[in-house]
Amino acid sequence: MFTILLYIASFGLCGIVVRRLLDGRPVLAWEPRYPVPWGMWAGMPAALLAMLAVLAAFAPGNQVAPLDEPIAAATEEATGDETNRVDTSRMLRGALMASAFMLVLLLCILVVVTNLCPTTTSDLGLPQSMPQLWSDVRLGMLAAVAALLPVLVAVNVAAWLFGDPSHPLIDQMKEHPHISIFAMAAFSAVVVAPLVEEVLFRLLLQGGLEKWEDVTAGLLPLEVLLPAPHVVVGADGEASVLEPGRNPDDDQEPDEQDDEPNPYQTPTSDDELPRMLIVGHRPPGHGWRSIAISSGLFAAAHAGQGSSPIPLFVLAIMLGYLYQRTHRIVPSIVAHATFNLISVVSVILLVMEGE
């Protein structure tokens, strides 16, 4: 009943989406934003993760994606052939270590990016007020429910063409139903995976790709692709190459300086965002290349899980669209976490029913 109600809600939301598209209206309003200070180089960790997953998937006898390999290895080590029972404490310890490693790695990547580029909370895709935060949470939850039906269709088509999808965490939940394994799977799928993957693939990778796409379309000057500490764009749209934090007015005599705000000052807070060029509304179809590339790499990062990359590509398109329209990361994280939560709860209910 739980699953049926969710799919009914998904069908209704998909109907609203189709109606808006038929009326020539966007599904979500495009919100003006500032271009991210980093370039496509910030997406290298996501691209590397996808490449490692593909290599691991095609390695002889290896069908586990890198993100799930430590957890699967811990499970295999903890499973005894004689009793066929799982040492849940050892498995939980291995899973927590794997999750902690991914969170620490994410933190290190963010530290590197924010040190190389002057960033603000807006650049990092964070909401600027509590009402905006709750709005982003609500949007993410609705998007997750709306994605259920399209992803289900993609799952069935992919299974028909390429075989059933698989996932190490779900497989372990089915084979070894235990409360600690359920909790471990929920923490990994609902907390760690959405946070790590959305920051890597949407915020850093897609954010840099959108900046590149704006430049190729002539919406931003070419100079913004250089390292952000050395290139800033003024409110008049002109780029200037400066040393970090250097104020051009410093070269003037004290009596020649005025009180006008300096548009080229390296930012230290969101209050100084006018130093960046506000990107205007993009033409129809603009931005989909960035969504497609980031979604393709996101799907590739889950190689080795049967036909799972195909429905995950469909899910990633929705997640990328959320970020592209709002330029905030919270809706994508919440949508990803909600979708995974529904999947985990559905598996738990099936296991409890003995199916």
Task: Give an overview in words.
A hairpin with a 5-residue loop joins strand 1 and strand 2. The protein is 59% helix and 2% strand. It is mainly alpha-helical. The chain has a two-stranded antiparallel sheet. The model is unreliable at 70-86, 228-235, 241-252 and 256-277 (pLDDT under 50). The protein has helices at residues 2-22, 44-58, 69-78, 88-116, 130-162, 168-175, 179-216, 288-300, 309-326, 330-353; strands at residues 231-233, 239-241.
- Which sheet architecture does the biggest sheet show? 2 strands, antiparallel
Neighbour order of strands in the largest sheet = 1-2
Q: What is the H-and-E element order?
A: HHHHHHHEEHHH
Q: Determine the structural class based on helices, strands and strand pairing.
A: mainly alpha
Roughly how many Å apart are the termini? Answer: 15 Å
> For the residues shown, what is the average pLDDT?
78
Which range best describes the helical content: under 10%, 10-25%, 25-40%, 40-55%, 55-70% or over 70%? 55-70%
Low-confidence stretches: 70-86, 228-235, 241-252, 256-277
CA gyration radius, whole angstroms: 23 Å
- The fraction of residues in strands falls at under 5%
